[in-house]
Write a structure and sequence with these properties.
- The protein is an alpha+beta fold.
- It folds into 2 domains: 36 residues, no CATH class; 145 residues, tt1808, chain A (Alpha-Beta Complex), CATH 3.90.1570.
- It contains 5 helices and 13 strands.
- The longest helix has 18 residues.
- It is globular and about 50 Å long.
- The relative contact order is 0.12.
Length: 208
């Protein structure tokens, strides 16, 4: 009996369709299907569809690590709340989950933190990736509608940190400030917390 290197019902070079069929079709995913999806890829969920995000680059991850450490170093000693980083799901409404690069929940909202996901957040940070429309427009609108009080958009291409704060009279963000090298980005949610733009963008320079 000879052994074939190509499994039955599979043509070399094609996707592994048999594996794909183990999962629901697009439009038919439930929240529980999404929450039980394993793996280390960033996957978001929107109204029955999953969205597989690009694998982060090293420079993107260096920036995320810098921001997470800065926020945690400020918040943890003061017992202000909990800081996490992606991949971790935030439910922004029924049927929709996003995975911010950095996320923070105030201590007084600890009841909204679950093992599999959080119900919203108090502050999120997004480091721009290759899908700029998704980060700059789609997520900005969704986070505002979800009532997340503060959102930081960190753009390594333009070297800007834009801090957005929720308008109390509308489900949209106002610009608290756009900060460039030589300035320090500040938070309205967490008075006293700031990030020097120079230091943040230096995190994108790999060690020699």
């Amino acid at each position: 009996m000879s052994l074939s290197s190509t499994p039955p019902n599979t043509t070399a070079g094609e996707p592994a369709w048999d594996v794909a069929r183990l999962f629901p079709a697009q439009g038919h995913w439930s929240e529980q299907d999404y929450l039980h999806l394993g793996g280390n890829r960033l996957v978001e969920f929107a109204d029955g569809h999953i969205e597989v995000l690009p694998m982060p680059t090293m420079l993107h991850q260096l920036m995320v690590a810098f921001l997470h450490e800065a926020l945690m170093a400020f918040a943890s000693p003061r017992h202000l709340g909990t800081t996490l980083f992606a991949p971790f799901a935030v439910r922004i409404r029924a049927g929709k989950y996003r995975e911010p690069d950095v996320l923070f929940m105030l201590a007084r909202h600890a009841d909204r933190m679950g093992e599999q996901f959080w119900d919203g957040a108090d502050l999120v940070m997004e480091v721009e990736s290759e899908d700029r429309h998704h980060d700059l427009e789609t997520k900005r609108l969704e986070y505002a509608r979800a009532g997340i009080p503060e959102c930081w958009i960190v753009d390594p291409l333009m070297k800007t940190i834009t801090v957005l704060v929720l308008d109390a009279d509308a489900d949209s963000y106002a610009v608290h400030g756009t900060f460039t090298p030589g300035q320090a980005a500040t938070s309205r949610l967490l008075p006293g917390f700031s990030v020097a733009a120079d230091e943040a963008f230096e995190a994108f320079v790999p060690p020699q």
